[in-house]
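Action item from last week, closing it out:
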Amino acid sequence: MSAVIEHRPNPPFDIERDIDQIRADFPILSMRVGDKPLVYLDNAASSQMPQRVIDRIVRYQTHEHSNIHRAVHYLSETATAQYEAARGKVRAFINAGSEREIVLTSGTTDAINLVMHGYGRKFVDAGDEIVISAIEHHANIVPWQMLCEERGAKLKVIPVTDAGELAFDAYQALLNPRVKLVCITHVSNALGTIVPIKDYIDAAHLHGIPVLVDGAQAAPHLPVDVQALGCDFYAFSGHKVCGPTGIGVLFGRAEWLEKMQPFKGGGDMISSVSFEKTTYNVIPYKFEAGTPPIMAAIALGEALDYLSEIGLSTIARREHELLAYATDEVSHIGGLRIIGTAERKAAVLSMVVEGIHPHDLGTLLNEDGVAIRTGHHCAQPVMTRFKVPATARASFAFYNTFAEVDALVASLKRAKSVFGVG
């Protein structure tokens, strides 16, 4: 643990008071793009890693690296203990009831596909229905399209309002005995909309329908309690919670994981193998075939420790303040339109500027060191719904500053001047 963390004050943590200390935890935030300081506002795509997570990766690679499970030598036992400790940290982070319900995957996409194959291919038949929403990431659309095509099932879509909020009454009307699964995002990556997810889970459960929640954009920004939510599955990625790429999480209620078939076959997910029959391992291991991302899992555990020390409620408040300030500031820029104006939003600001293509806008902002995301954000149906080819998306994290919002606004104004619009 770094000295910065060791001397961190006890909660309640004050991010504004200690922002310099927090930013010092992230070495990449001190870099420059050309002659300009980096203003990193692409956190919805991937957050940055604090030094202590980087140090944990180095420590594993230099002193602990080995394959896990089965072996009895020191390095393997050490790596196994650290890997399983990371599973325990994930359980605590989302308040799952048991570590048996935590499957370590390669990311949110892998977790959703695991449920598609393990649950969908076993329980969804011709004429059945799967409900998703109009604001889903492609990772929570394409697997279900593939399943429906294979099984002869139908995909039903919850509509979205002009503000970017889901239509709850329309959702309730879609629920019927043919629906075998609801797959819905907790927070929209393209609009920032925070879905009142418990209401959607409760409504589905009234009909006996299980619910999978894509939590990739929620886990980094909001406290998540899967027991309080009552969801059946919850997925998120390590690289969005200040951890490395290549690691993710699927929470699944034990009763479902026990019934599901494995997604992948191979080593470690088995109990016994013969040419006549294979017996699968207990959960969660029957879903973790082959050598897992050991280093990434251990680093994820360190990242979750870091976020937990600051506090997800504290993070949510800070990011809400940044979003409110940024929303007010960009609203005074002529010709700029915000796409997604839901009453409850995470720290995502999707914009279009009249007369400037989002890709051109992103290129000009990069000249000022301002890093945003441009494109359809793997949410092409959202772009179609709002009749735009793409948006320029600024997404904030707790380590961003109000001065960085000012830099974003100044760069947007400069872009308008360069293009001679407005």
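Closing note: The chain has two domains: 3-48+311-419, 55-308.
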